[in-house]
TrEMBL record:
Similarity section: Belongs to the PTPS family. QueD subfamily.
Cofactor(s) listed in the protein's UniProt record: Zn(2+)
Protein name: 6-carboxy-5,6,7,8-tetrahydropterin synthase
Top-level enzyme category: lyase
Gene source species: Streptosporangium album
Keyword set, alphabetical order: Lyase, Metal-binding, Zinc
Gene3D superfamilies: 6-pyruvoyl tetrahydropterin synthase/QueD
Enzyme Commission (EC) number: 4.1.2.50
One function term, GO molecular function aspect: 6-carboxytetrahydropterin synthase activity
Catalysed transformations (reactions): 7,8-dihydroneopterin 3'-triphosphate + H2O = 6-carboxy-5,6,7,8-tetrahydropterin + triphosphate + acetaldehyde + 2 H(+)
Pathway: Purine metabolism; 7-cyano-7-deazaguanine biosynthesis
């Protein structure tokens, strides 16, 4: 094995993926309360209640960088901080200016990620998945962007 080659034989930073599509994902979690409007009388989601929310962020890139990364997971720290500061142990009805459904929360988080995190990382957002329970989730998939 020569000194400037990785064990796989490709030089650092030029690992074209030759048609393969690779994604990474990271999970984040927070606890919050919400209440949904516009529902029939007696609907359980119309009452104030809480969830242990789980947020998954999925990223891709056309090429890997550094040692073979889409994005160093450590570079997602600003997103973790935003979730903690803005959502953890809060009432989502007070935090969001839209109805706090999983769907609209996923869209909100995707927009924030694209505006605040994506410019500083090599990867690009594929989707944000928001889960309120172990059995349910909403996925906001990002359309192709130039
Ligand atoms: Zn709920």
């Amino acid at each position: 094995m020569s000194g400037h080659q990785t064990p796989a034989g490709a030089p650092h930073g030029s690992d074209g993926l030759n048609g393969f599509h690779v994604e990474i994902s990271k999970h984040f979690a927070f606890e919050a309360a919400h209440r949904l409007g516009g529902l029939p009388e007696g609907h359980q989601c119309g009452r104030h209640h809480g969830h242990s929310y789980r947020v998954e962020v999925r990223l891709t890139a056309d090429e890997l960088s550094g040692p073979g990364f889409i994005t160093d997971f450590g570079e997602l720290e600003p997103f973790a901080a935003y979730i903690k500061q803005s959502f953890d142990h809060r009432d989502l009805n007070e935090v969001l200016n839209v109805e706090p459904t999983s769907e609209l929360l996923a869209v909100h988080l995707a927009r924030w990620f694209i505006e605040h995190v994506e410019p500083a990382i090599p990867g690009r957002l594929v989707a944000v998945v928001v889960s309120e329970t172990a059995k349910t989730s909403a996925t906001c998939t990002v359309s192709e962007r130039k």
